[in-house]
Amino acid sequence: MSIIISPSILSANFDHLGDEVKKCVDSKCEWLHFDVMDGHFVPNISFGSVVLKSINHYDIVYDVHLMISDPLKYAIDFIKAGANIITFHYEAYENKEKILETINFIKSHNVKVGLSIKPKTSVEAIKEFLPYLDLVLVMSVEPGFGGQKFMDSALDKIEQLAALKQENHYLIEVDGGINDATGALCKQKGVNALVAGSYLFNASNFKEKVNSLR
Length: 214
Ligand code: DX5
Ligand code: ZN
Prior knowledge:
Layout: E1 4-7, H1 17-26, E2 31-37, H2 49-55, E3 61-67, H3 71-80, E4 85-89, H4 96-108, E5 112-117, E6 135-139, H5 153-164, E7 171-175, H6 180-189, E8 193-196, H7 198-201, H8 206-212
Parallel strand pairs: 1-8, 2-3, 3-4, 4-5, 5-6, 6-7, 7-8
Helix pairs in contact: 3-4
Bound molecules: D-xylitol-5-phosphate and zinc ion.
C-alpha cells in the first residue's frame, strides 16, 4: 500500500489559507491534517470547526486531529463541518466508557475514527480499543506545537501497532517532526500515513518536499 501524505495546515500561511489547501491538493496529497487545540488539553489554541467549514470544498480527505479535553462534546461540530476522519486523544478521558462512547458516536455519523497516543502513552494502553478503530495516531512530539524534534520512541510503537494489525483493520499515522529522514524510518516500521507541517510549509518547493516523503 502506498504512503498517505497529510500536510498539517497548522504551519500554513493563514493570510491565504485557501491557496495553501489548494497547494496540498495540487501536490497530490491524499489527506489534509487539521490540528484543533483548546488551550486546555494542550498549552496552545489553534482553530475550530468554523475554519474547517470554510475550507472543506476541496477534493481531499479532511483528517481532523482533536487535541481537546472533551472531544465527545465537540465532535458533532467537526462532523457537520465536513471532517472525513476524526482522531481524538486516549488521554482526554480517564474512563474507558467515555472513550468507547466517543468512538461509537463518531462512527454512527459515518465518519472514520482515530485514537491518538502522546509520547508517554504505551500501545498496551489502547490495545482494547484497536478492534473498533479506523486509525491509530502515534504522536512523535508532545502535542501542542509544530516544528518540534521527532522522538525515536514513536518507532517502536509503530512497529508494535503494525504487528497487532494482523487481527485489526486500522491505519497507522505518525505526527510530529516528520521530514524525509524521519519519515523513511517510520515507513520501514510500517506506518501508513505521515503528517508533516513545518517540513512542507516552510519550504519554497512544496511539491518536491511532498515527493521526498513518498
Ligand atoms: C502537533 C500537531 C502536529 C504538528 C506537526 O501538536 O499535532 O500536527 O502540526 O508539525 P511538524 O510537522 O512541524 O512537527
Ligand atoms: Zn496533528
